[in-house]
Write a structure and sequence with these properties.
2 domains, alpha/beta, single chain, Rossmann fold, four-stranded parallel β-sheet, about 375 residues, 14 helices
Length: about 375
Amino acid sequence: MGQTAWEEAFWQRLEEAENDFRQKNGKIAWFCSYTPVEIISSCGLHPYRFSGKEGTSYYADSFLHSSLCFFVRGCLERVLKGEEKNLEGVVLVNSCLAMSHLFFALQKYSSCSFSYLLDLPRYDSQPAREFWSQVLRKFHRALSKYRGIESTEKELWEQIYLYRENRRRLQQLYERREGQVAADGHELIRLVEAFTILPPADFQEIYEAYSRDIFNKKNTLNGPRIFLTGSSMPGGLAKLIHESGGVLVLDDLCIGRRILQFTGEPEAGEDPYSFLARQYLQREPCARMKSAGENLAKLEDMLKKYQIEGMIFFYLKFCDPWYYYGQLLKEIVKDIPVLILEGEYASAGTGQMRTRISAFLEMIR
């Protein structure tokens, strides 16, 4: 089914809002969903998620080894080619070896005046939370010093509540998808992407427009019910599932449902750094975390709850954590068919990818 005039106007408005934002000064790029955007925003800067350039990374391959993942090389490619204007700084997480290499390359070859690497624990425990809270406190001090300001805990709490409210809004769209689904998951993922780019106030306007004019006026979708998971994905992969006749019911993506799992309340006497550390570490883990394999044990119950008929797992070439996660996935998921896709950070629109997804959906029907 094609888009209505209301839908076309909305998605165009969203694109324009993001393009307008990219012209602003004071942008701090982040790459991993464990990045504490609330701290960046509390210092008067604009955090936004940096995505890699899709296609061949000719420039980046001169600085990063070709066996590193395509997302990392695509990010460096955009910076080296000067495609991102008014970029003041970058904040990375040592989520993998490739990200560490990217940090040092950006530190040396980009024009950013601020760069920072966060040391993220690999599991959730009380000692890990205490360590992560100290890392966040140190990061806040470093960013405040760079800005020449005294950013207070009060200002940080304000940003925490602001971002948390937007996460809750998006979580509402993910609710009640156990039965019939009206909004395909690719639209929800696109809204999450907007959440990671736009300032909170601007995103609130976008969300209200979608909820009022689009979400509440949709008809029920028909087609195989699909669950999507995996590593960083090229743009358009989720939409390709919809265009091929599938219904994306649920996702397990960093820039998707997982980034929204941040809705708890502060405990008595808890400072903002301890609260952030607890919230970021207690969410469902990605493949980089030690508990990722243990979390797979809960997956079968989730698939039954949402009546999933097929799973699509995508991972980037040379991404070892997600490759091994995929091997565990194949061993655990036995009751439904699983399509495993390996690709570059540019393959969502290829005929081969479209053919494989279409054939997979046809098999389920």
